[in-house]
Specification:
heterodimer, A: about 450 residues, alpha+beta, 16-stranded mixed sheet, 6 helices, about 20% helix, elongated, B: about 290 residues, Lipocalin, TATA-Binding Protein, 2 domains, 4-stranded mixed sheet, 5 helices
Chain lengths: ~450, ~290
């Protein structure tokens, strides 16, 4: 009996040791004792080089006394900008190129472009590195036979004229030959002066208003909201994902927070971090450009249709502007600005302080063409909409075509800028789009 | 060697092997509750540091190593219905400018805030006790609890925490608990004036997911006290910490559900509470309920 009990006990112990060994080998893991940080550097896009962060707001090309506008996103836009950007990068010592004699009689304007935000110059930038600093607001290329000049319009008001080296003449001639004007690129310069509109309201045309003159139809697009990988997005903001808690709002929004910073996902994303960093000190304009560009790439990416629209210093509560920048990006559709509730806004102060991103992508297929009424009719309708304010003289600051976001539809609109007011009007019916508030 | 002896030797050998394997596999888990994160000497140093900064610790503090996880909660709708029935309040509410719903009755009116907080006001107040009995802040507690039980307004999860008196008003604070841990965002406040119950404030939460045994290790009470000094700085005049508990807290949201982090709650003699996030060591906003 005793021997039998011993045998049973031994069998049990052997069985038990087998189970425990199995557990040790395959099963139970050691108990976690600390909050494991699962930090891994996650980002959506690599940081863009400075040369791809700023683009001209508009490029005009002149041929046979006609003016053509190459819009952002159009095939030739990047090509022209890359060539001229290279020119500005290669001009290291400007003293060699200054032309004190001025333009020769008969010289004609070939290309002009405006920059908003401005192009940074100087040692921290990649353009005109020999300059001490400054910003470029515009650039004009003039030609006379084989000679080419560049006129730099600096933010301070100076406009030095540079005679370009012969090596560049060939490249610029190639640019000229390569450009094939399209009828819809044709622009009309409005003559300076006053136009009398309905009920004795005068519209004064400011110095430089160029309107698209040959676009009779525009497509209407159906768009879909940008979808970002939420888990990856969270990891770009929160170093330790384990410490992030989730709040499901009644309106369907999701908030993620670790107590210091918060991310809300509903219509796009909204992020805020009231005290992003302890570092102090100011940032130069080129350094701020690089910072905001890097942050945009990291936190959601920088789509090709998105362009930096504005980068400016902001005033803090104490009146100082040190280290506080606000950046704004807008989307373009077929070369036209997409207005309405979309875009990206960012505030930077020693770190990412706030970030709002609400972007749309092309969905499958484009809609039918919509009629585009003439700009004169659009201007008349805009003036009429302002007549309730009783202004007798209005100043026309801009008149262009764009898209406006109505729900998830992009509808073509005329955008009339009159005396500080921006009035979008649907191109066919010349009425404000749905959702627009003055 | 005979077989019996061989069996005995093998039994002892396997017993030893099994003990070793058990210790290796389960040793950490078994010793966990006994593990002290802060030694007696370190604790004395913390107390000295607190005193140097004008804080006196007059509370029992858990010094063991603890683990916790986020607790998912949602606001409970049950008390609102019960209160409306008990006090025969109007079925159709009015809405105030802040979006709160107002139900009115003869004896009481109920305000339902968007975040789920209920405020029940009695007009006139309900006399619960003789004047002479009010010699201590906590003295009305049994009377209030009796009243709440009678009216069916005393959920089992609530327990008495502390009382404060400001401008002649005594407020009894009850806290909700979940699996033995206090939920500082789930609370019941009974507001007394001249021994009369004038209002009740109730925020009842429904914990959605049971707490899991295996969470992340939280910062020790000692570390939380040091963070308190860092965040609040030295105190003058000196203040007394009367309670130090590990529980769950977050500000309330107008949301369907949210996750609450574990926090160290330090209650001062003034009635003010400070919540230190037990994962990050940061101050949780809205320091007092």
């Amino acid at each position: 009996m005793k021997e039998r009990a011993k045998s049973v006990l031994l069998c049990l112990l052997v069985l038990c040791s087998l189970i425990l060994t199995y557990q040790l080998w395959f099963g139970q893991r050691p108990v976690e004792t600390t909050a494991e940080s699962d930090y891994e550097p996650v980002y959506f896009d690599e940081t863009r080089p400075l040369s791809q962060m700023i683009h001209p707001q508009r490029i005009y090309i002149y041929r046979e006394e006609k003016r053509y506008q190459v819009r952002r996103g159009e095939p030739g836009f990047d090509f022209f900008w890359e060539e001229l950007s290279e020119l500005l990068q290669e001009m290291a010592e400007l003293d060699y190129y200054y032309d004190k004699e001025g333009l020769l009689d008969g010289a004609a304007l070939f290309i002009s472009m405006q920059f908003e935000p401005r192009l940074p110059l100087g040692p921290e930038s990649i353009w005109l590195k020999s300059r001490r600093g400054g910003q470029l607001a515009g650039l004009e290329i003039w030609r006379w036979e084989e000679r080419y000049w560049a006129k730099l319009e600096e933010a301070g008001g100076a406009a030095p004229l540079l005679l370009l080296p012969p090596g560049w003449a060939g490249r610029l001639a190639g640019l000229y030959d390569r450009f094939e004007p399209q009828p819809e690129q044709l622009c009309e310069m409005l003559p300076a002066g006053e136009i009398m509109m309905v009920r004795q309201t005068a519209v004064k045309i400011s110095e430089f208003v160029c309107v698209p003159a040959a676009i009779s139809r525009m497509k209407r697009y159906s768009l879909k909201k940008e979808r970002l990988d939420e888990e990856a997005l969270l990891k770009t903001f929160f170093i330790n994902r384990n410490l992030v808690r989730e709040i499901k709002e009644k309106d369907g929004g999701l908030i993620y927070t670790d107590g210091e910073q918060g991310l809300r996902l509903e219509r796009g994303l909204e992020y805020s971090h009231p005290q992003p960093g302890q570092k102090r000190g100011d940032l130069s304009y080129p350094a701020a450009l690089l910072k905001v560009g890097k942050l945009l790439g990291y936190h959601g990416g920088w789509p090709n249709s998105l362009y930096l629209e504005n980068l400016e210093r902001q005033e803090r509560s104490g009146g100082s502007t040190e280290g506080l920048f606000r950046a704004q990006w807008r989307s373009y559709l077929d070369g036209f600005l997409l207005l309405g509730d979309n875009g990206v806004e960012m505030t930077y102060q020693h770190g990412l302080q706030s970030y709002r991103r609400n972007l749309y992508e092309h969905s499958q297929g484009s809609g039918a063409g919509v009629k585009v009424e003439g700009y004169q009719d659009a201007l008349r309708a805009a003036v009429k909409s302002l007549q309730g304010k009783g202004e007798q003289q209005l100043i026309l600051e801009g008149l262009d075509l764009a898209y406006y976001l109505e729900g998830t539809e992009a509808v073509p609109v005329w955008v009339v800028r009159l005396s500080g007011e921006v009035i979008p009007l649907k191109t066919d019916k010349l009425v404000p789009p749905e959702g627009w508030k003055p | 060697m005979n077989l019996s002896r061989a069996k005995t030797i093998l039994i002892f050998a396997f017993l030893g092997l099994n003990l070793f394997l058990c210790f290796y596999l389960f040793g950490n888990a078994l010793s966990e509750p006994l593990r002290m994160r802060v030694s007696r000497k370190q604790w004395r140093e913390i107390e000295e540091q607190l005193e140097r900064n004008g804080y006196t610790l007059a509370a029992q503090v858990d010094r063991s190593a603890r683990k916790s996880a986020f607790l998912t909660v949602s606001p409970s709708k049950a008390p609102e219905k019960a209160i409306r029935e008990r006090f025969a309040l109007s079925p159709t509410p009015l809405t105030d400018s802040a979006g709160a719903l107002l139900f009115e009755g003869r004896q009481a009116k109920l305000k339902v805030f968007p975040g789920g907080l209920l405020r029940l006001e009695f007009a006139p107040g309900i006399a619960l006790m003789e004047e002479t009995a009010a010699d201590e802040e906590a003295a009305p507690a049994p009377f209030v609890e009796n009243f709440l039980r009678e009216k069916g307004l005393a959920p089992d999860e609530f327990y008495y925490d502390h009382a404060t008196t400001i401008d002649g008003k005594t407020v009894l604070h009850y806290l909700q608990s979940c699996e033995g841990a206090p939920l500082f965002s789930g609370y019941l406040k009974a507001i007394m004036e001249n021994n009369t119950l004038t209002a009740l404030e109730l925020s009842l939460l429904e914990p959605k997911k049971p707490l899991q045994g295996q969470g992340m290790e939280v910062i020790s009470s000692a570390r939380a006290l040091l963070r308190l000094i860092e965040i609040r700085g030295a105190s003058s005049p000196p203040r007394q910490i009367v309670k130090a508990d590990l529980g769950f807290y977050s500000r309330s949201y107008d949301a369907d559900e949210w996750e609450m982090p574990p926090v160290w709650r330090f209650l001062f003699d003034s009635g003010e509470s400070i919540f230190i996030n037990a994962f990050t060591g940061n101050l949780e906003p809205e320091t007092s309920n």
